[in-house]
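On clarity, I found the account of how folds are encoded harder to follow than it need be. Since the whole study asks how a given chain folds, the encoding of that fold should be made plain. The format is easy to grasp once an entry is in front of the reader. For illustration, here is how one protein appears when written out as sequence plus structure tokens.
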Amino acid sequence: MPHGKSFLSSANLGLAVGVWMYSGYESMSTVAGQMERPQRIVPRALMITMPLVVAAYFLPTLAGLVGVGHWSDWATSGGISFVQLARTLGGAVLGYVMLGAAVISNLALYQDYVTVDAAPAYAMAEDRLLPKWLNSVHPRYGTPWLSILLLAGLNMVFIIGSFADLVVVDVVLNMFYYLVMYVTAVRLRQKEPGLERPFRVWGNTTMLVVICAPAMAIAVLTVYSNAIDTSTKILGHASFTIAGFTFGWYGIGGLISLVSGPIAYVIFKKTLGGRPLDAVSAVEPTDLA
């Protein structure tokens, strides 16, 4: 922890960045129904990729700490970048390799992000919860190209502020999504124990709770530590007290974003109609896969 900082004030950004770096694995559930033997493939894929991901983050950082040091100057305005660290450790060639790797990996990450996150917009348009034109697919490639373009355009608008601010905003919102996902998984196991599942977590409901509990604790701590963070000032104010609770700007932004979801649902449901529940329940699992 930095000198003079408490655990929570140190953990807020650290947890947000850590969660952001290791998030996204829940997307496997989306494609599990399209896999052959997902019960075997998913655990094997995780056991192979997770050590590689950890090494990709840990080893360059360790090399920079040992070979260069001055970690407090890393990635700050006018500070040391990983490209500069690579150049210091291995010369100009390693610097160019690091720069190329950073550009390629971020392009691949963003392409995956835009493509995967366009699917919900497409599905919601199909359920008449978003405008119908988002349900259009490209005549040649069969991709939801209008949904992808919309998401890309929104990203261009919202890419403001520092990397840290963007990560915290993204992660705080995702934490509520993850919490709902964990609770839903447990409730579904309780209410529909015999439901056919492409992939099933080993053990009974208690085992599922034990597996989900650490991740839920991290999610709650991440939201709490960032919600009470008062290090950012806007218009001269760093915090607000609502119903006896003090929130920083991250907490205020998170509350506004959370409330906007149900409000948008009510508006689109009322204006576009939405698909009747009996029509949704009539869809066979094989159709969804």
In short: Residues 1-30+163-289 form one domain. The longest strand covers residues 239-242. Residues 82-126 form the longest helix (45 residues). Residues 188 and 194 are 10 Å apart (CA to CA).
